Amino acid sequence: MASPRYARIVLKLSGEALEPPGLGGIDFGRLDQLCGEVAEAHALGVDIGLVVGGGNIFRGVSGAETGVERATGDYMGMLATVINALAIQSVLEKKGVATRVLTAIEMPPVAEPYIRRRAMRHLEKRRIVIFAAGTGNPYFTTDTAAALRANEIGADVLFKATKVDGVYDSDPAVNKEAARYDELSYTEVLAKNLRVMDATAISLCRENNLPILVFNMTRSGSIIKAIQGERIGTIVKGD
Fold first, then answer.
1. Quick one: 211 exposed, middle or buried, by C-beta within 10 A (0-12, 13-18, 19+)?
2. Alpha-carbon torsion angle 160, 163, 166, 171, nearest 10
C-alpha cells in the first residue's frame, strides 16, 4: 500500500452523512463502514482529527424557522454534534482505535473540554481526536469549526467528506449538465458563491493556506485514496 501523502488531517463529516436514507438519527451500519475506513487510515500512521455536524438530529437554522431563537437553536445543534461524536467514539473504540472526544461546551461527565494543548498531546499519543460542539458559539457552523481546529492543530489538509464527488458549478442532483471542478482557488469559491463550505471557513483556510479536499465519502475506499494523494474530488487551495 502506498505511503500516506499527509501526516495530519482533519476530516469534516456532516451529520446527514450518518443518517439512514430519508430519516433522521444515526445509521450504525453506515457509521461502522465509515469508522472502518477511518481506522484503516489511522493504521497508516496518519494523525486524525474529526469534526462532525449535528444536522441528522437538529440544525439550528431549521429550528429558527420554526420559532426557536437562532442562538438557542445553534446551541441545540451543538449538543447534537456531541451525540454524534460519542457514537463515532464508541464504534471506533470497538475497532481497537484509541479516541478522545473534546467538546467546546464543557460537560465533564461526557467528554473532555477542548484545550488545544490537550488535543495536540492526544494526537502525539496516536489517539483520534473528535472535536464536538462546533466552536462553542452560535452563528458559526461546524464547517468553520473544522477550519478552525485544522489550523489550530497544524493539519496538512482539511477533508470535507460529502455525498457528491467534488464541487460542481450547479447542483448535480438537479442539473445533469453540471460540471465538476478538479481544482479551485479560495477566491474562486468565494467569488462564484460555490457551496464548498461557508465563507468564514473558506477565509480561514485562505488566510492560513490550508488546502481543502472535497470528495464523496459514500464510495468505498475514498478516505484512503485521498490520504494517499490519489486524484479524487475537488481540491481548493492557494490563489
1. middle
2. -120
Alpha-carbon span 136 to 190, nearest angstrom: 25
Q: Which residues pair with 230 in a beta bridge?
A: none
* Mode of pairing for the β-strands spanning 234-237 and 212-216: antiparallel
Domain boundary assignment for the chain: 8-237
Cα gap 218→231, rounded to integer Å: 16
Task: Decide which of 196 and 74 is more confident.
Answer: 74
Instruction: Quote the percentage of the chain above a pLDDT of 90.
Output: 70
Q: Which CATH superfamily is domain 8-237 in?
A: Acetylglutamate kinase-like (3.40.1160.10)
Question: What is the pTM assigned to this prediction?
Answer: 0.93
Q: Do the beta carbons of residue 230 and residue 181 sit within 8 Å? A: no
Predicted pLDDT at 52: 95
Whole-number Cα distances in Å, 15 to 6, 43, 98, 121, 189? 25, 25, 22, 27, 23
pLDDT at 20: 85
pLDDT at residue 60, as a whole number: 62
